[in-house]
Amino acid sequence: MDYLNKMRSFVGNKEEGPRVHSLDYLRGMMAFMIMIYHYLIWVSDLYGAETFFGRIGVYGVSIFYIISGMTLCLVYKNSLSFTSSSISSFFIRRFFRIYPLLWVSMLLTLLLDARSVYSNSHLFLSLTGLFGFVDPTKYIGLVTWSIGNELVFYSLFPLLIILFKKNRPLFFTLTTSLVLVNFYYTFFVFDALSTLHVQWGEYVNPLNHIMLFVFGVFMGLSTLKNNAVISNGTLKLFLLLGVIGLFFYPVSGDLIKIIQGWERIFLVICSCIICFTVYNVPWKLPNWVHLPLSNIGKVSYSIYLLHPICFMLLIKLNNAGLNLKIRYLFVLYVIMAFGVSNLFYYFFERPFVGVGRRLTDRKVKVLEK
């Protein structure tokens, strides 16, 4: 019992802010399906704009950005203020939430992908997280480009909240400008006759995704939770329509087809509807459903960053003598990704989140004294 208590103390019991279970469910499901999507594109060509996993590959990440804007608002919209201590506390907590696992994923990628050679500037931009601000293509790892986008969004978030509280006209001017910049990418930057692969550098630019985060912020600021303005039945109907629209809207061909033009606007609206309704519907799930969904939501960041590592390691082992068929390799891949992600979440992520919390709590106490 003493051992268990010591381990609980080491891991820590506090999360960064209150957990929103419904958004955990959605975040976890997106992380799981993105993990499957990547496996499919790494071992086959079973994807495209018309396929379920093709849509997940693009709009699973889009939903991450929307959820990010929503959850940051839910946690910080009342506490964040225009003071150095408040803003520095926000960035300190974000640092300890994002960077430790990001560095681990980069280090493991470098170890497993020894054939790749990176310049000093590439390494510097990647390790500092500045690649999202300077050159979004200078990342290390298969999925870390999106974390560079997140870091850019985090840098804007305190300004958005402060303007919302202090200067609404300027808040709406800034958010509208950001959305219009994203519209420029949607309608003028991408060439529908080319491919996503050819235009990857434009796609990973934060300006190409900023409207998703902004829409999430809007929804976090105007949530209907515990408000009977819209009935639960109506919300569930909109959720169903959002899912149908996202996955069955008739578009086919290369994935570029669903990230440009009016097709993208429609699919972004469907993604926003899904996030908004999932949060506002009062879900009452039995424990046998709630517990696994809640767990995968908690470890979703680890799943997202570490599943490519698991895949690369398994491929090396398979080539070295395992010789498993693709379907058996997939089962081992899923089991390994979940196991590794849970270990890293409970014994690495959460302790570092706790460090950020303790540092900022101590800072507040010193200022109060």
TrEMBL record:
Q: Which EC class is this protein assigned?
A: transferase
Report a single Gene Ontology molecular function: acyltransferase activity
Pfam families hit by this protein: Acyl_transf_3 (PF01757)
Database matches in InterPro entries: Acyl_transf_3_dom (IPR002656), Acyltransferase_3 (IPR050879)
Q: Which residues cross the membrane?
A: 25-44, 56-77, 98-119, 139-163, 170-190, 210-230, 237-259, 265-283, 295-315, 327-348
E.C. number: 2.3.-.-
Q: Provide the leader sequence positions.
A: none
Any idea which UniProt keywords this protein has?
Answer: Acyltransferase, Membrane, Transferase, Transmembrane, Transmembrane helix
Per UniProt, residues of the Acyltransferase domain are: 21-345
Q: Is the keyword ATP-binding in the record?
A: no
User: What PANTHER family is this protein classified in?
Assistant: ACETYLTRANSFERASE, ACYL_TRANSF_3 DOMAIN-CONTAINING PROTEIN
Q: What is this protein called?
A: Acyltransferase family protein
